[in-house]
Design brief:
By secondary structure, the chain is an alpha/beta fold. The protein has a single domain, classed as Alpha/Beta hydrolase fold, catalytic domain (Rossmann fold, 3-Layer(aba) Sandwich), CATH 3.40.50. The chain is built from 12 helices and 8 strands. Strand 5, helix 3 and strand 6 form a beta-alpha-beta unit. Helix 2 packs across helix 3 and helix 4 packs antiparallel against helix 7. The radius of gyration is 18 Å and the shape is globular. The two termini are 27 Å apart.
């Protein structure tokens, strides 16, 4: 099923610009947030799948990522500020509520938004959040990247030029996503990682326990920075959560049928689409 796709932009109070893509239409909103250093392009297959089911899907490039602005000031970045940007986007779109989905950093932002603006969040679709047990491993992986961006910017410039020279239309989809990852400005990468890693990375356990919306939490085997223990912990903390264990981070990218099905079923349940269809059938008799 073909769905409409359109690109939009939002200007924040700071003057920074965010770019997003809308898929489909209607009032059953789903907002998908990418992982650190990735872009909204990673969610294109899932967005199209959800929109084909009648949902109104939005994918956002967080500040410092993709085609959104990339300020070089660490104070411009934090998980709480990203959550505020999500709420600002819902205001811009005229969406009273949305199902928030996110991967890694995006999952943390969705959790933060659910704590800061619970009335705007219909449900949570979370893949591999970075929480208590995984923070040390995440810091070990990302801190050297932050230091490298500060001390070896020429390496980032070379990778960026090389990645931008490859037309995305001639490479496989996920190869294009990988090229987007290395299309980075050194100053923006250093600033973003600094702001995120040394700020509030996620709501604490007490705050997470106050989130009362339905949640589907997915985690992978053998992921040190986002271990299954954190997924289980979060699922136990959230009153209405269910955990799903995947075969690895590659499953949803390369063999998506099972997890797409989980996501579609969950999203329709959150918006009570099945109940709506049943009522329509009864009323038509």
């Amino acid at each position: 099923m073909l769905v409409s796709e359109r690109i939009g932009q939002l200007f924040l109070g700071s003057g920074d610009r965010l770019e997003f893509t809308e898929y489909g239409g209607g009032e059953r909103w789903v907002l998908l947030l990418h992982g650190e250093l990735l872009t909204r392009r990673m969610h294109q297959p899932l967005a199209r799948r959800l929109a084909a089911e009648g949902l109104h899907v939005v994918t956002l490039d967080l500040l410092g990522h993709g085609r959104s602005d990339r300020p070089g000031d660490p104070l411009a970045y934090s998980v709480p500020s990203f959550a505020d940007h999500v709420v600002a986007l819902l205001d811009h779109l005229g969406a009273e509520q949305a199902l928030l989905g996110g991967v890694s950093l995006g999952a943390n932002v969705a959790l933060e938004a659910a704590v800061r603006a619970p009335e705007r969040v219909r449900g949570l679709l979370l893949e591999s959040p970075v929480l208590d047990n995984g923070f040390a491993a995440a810091l070990t992986c990302l801190a050297p990247l932050m230091v490298g961006a500060r001390t070896l910017p020429v390496a980032f410039s070379g990778l960026r030029r090389a990645s931008r020279a490859v037309p995305r239309g001639i490479v496989p989809f996920w190869a294009g996503v990988a090229l987007d990852v290395v299309n980075q400005r050194a100053d923006a990468v250093a600033a973003m990682l600094h702001g995120v890693l040394f700020g509030r990375l996620a709501p604490d356990s007490a705050a997470r326990r106050t989130i009362e919306v339905p949640a589907l939490v997915l985690g992978h085997r053998g992921d040190l920075a986002r271990p299954w223990s954190d997924v289980r912990m979060l699922a136990d903390e959230l009153p209405r959560a269910r955990a799903v264990r995947t075969r690895g981070p590659w499953e949803w990218r390369l063999d998506p049928a099972r997890l797409d099905g989980e996501a579609v079923s969950f999203a329709l349940d959150v918006w009570d689409a099945r109940g709506t269809r049943r009522r329509r059938r009864r009323s038509s008799r």
